[in-house]
Amino acid sequence: MGDGKKGERQPLLKNENVTYSSHGSDFVDEVESTVSTVSAIGPDEVPPPYESSSQCGKPMVTCRVCQAMIDISGKRDQHVVKCCQCNEATPIRNAPPGKKYVRCPCNCLLICKSSSQRIACPRPNCKRIINLAPSPITPPVLSMPGMCRVCCGHCHDTFLFNTLNNALARCPHCRKISSVGPDFARGRGIAFTIVGLIALVIAIAVTVGTHAYAKTSGGIYVAYVGAFLLALLCFGRSIYYCTMKISMIEGPM
After folding, report:
1. Does residue 18 carry a pLDDT above 90?
2. Strand order in the sheet with 59-62
3. Pair 129, 176 in one domain
4. Which own/partner contact pairs does 52-58 have at CB distance under 8 Å and 24+ positions apart?
5. In total, how many domains does the chain have?
6. Given 83, 108, 112, 152, which residue is catalytic?
7. Where is it found, in Gene Ontology cellular component terms (predicted)?
């Protein structure tokens, strides 16, 4: 989906006989074509929320045409998926920058420039000329201190996160946890490493200093095990934070 009219003619679904695409129709001369006025797909429709199937736990979305469930396993990097029931396309990711989705009355999913006012449906049995209704004016969002747009380190989708919270961010799209910026994960990793080293030194010192009494007092072995387990747990958390994915801040909200 490149820039220009050539990019707008690219199909949304590859290797399909039906072309789910759109192209500018500023030069359409077909008098017999039907003219329709539709609105671009709103933010409450794109993309539909992921749902987990109760049988196998696969990520599913609802088809926007026939309401059937679509399995999107292995397809999350795509922008749209095809329904097996009605063969229509349903978006699962936001449109690329500078583009927007439009649903033709024949249920064909089109993609066009955000500034397009008139497009044509490419289906041979439709050929509608679609006049795009202006997007509704949304009230300005009140800015919150520390609220920024963050690009997920796992799925690379964008979500909002308050950077003033010293907590790990969970992406609302893929539900995976990442660190917003490298500082938080690196700081936690170093802190757990230091605590683990201190616990390990204490465990070794206690073991060396009390091994002579361990034969007569069996409870000392419990202290040995607890100290070494604490050190091992701290080192494990340190590795977890040091290998954590990093989500980068794209800018303020």
Report:
1. no
2. 51-52, 59-62, 69-71
3. no
4. none
5. 3
6. 112
7. late endosome membrane; lysosomal membrane; phagocytic vesicle membrane; plasma membrane
Within this chain, do residues 232 and 149 fall inside the same structural domain, yes or no?
yes
CA distance 201 to 213: 19
In the predicted structure, residue 137 carries a pLDDT above the cut 70:
no
Contacts of residues 72-78 at CB distance under 8 Å and 24 or more positions apart, as own/partner, are 76/155, 76/174
The domain containing residue 112 runs over which residues?
95-134
Concerning whether 112 is annotated as a catalytic residue, the answer is: yes
Same domain, 243 and 149: yes
Nearest CA to 50 out of 63, 62, 64, 67 is that of: 62
Same domain, 171 and 223: yes
Tens of pLDDT, residue by residue over 138-186, are 555 556 677 788 888 888 888 888 877 767 888 888 888 888 888 888 8
The residue among 121 and 75 whose pLDDT is bigger is: 121
3-class SS of residue 80: strand
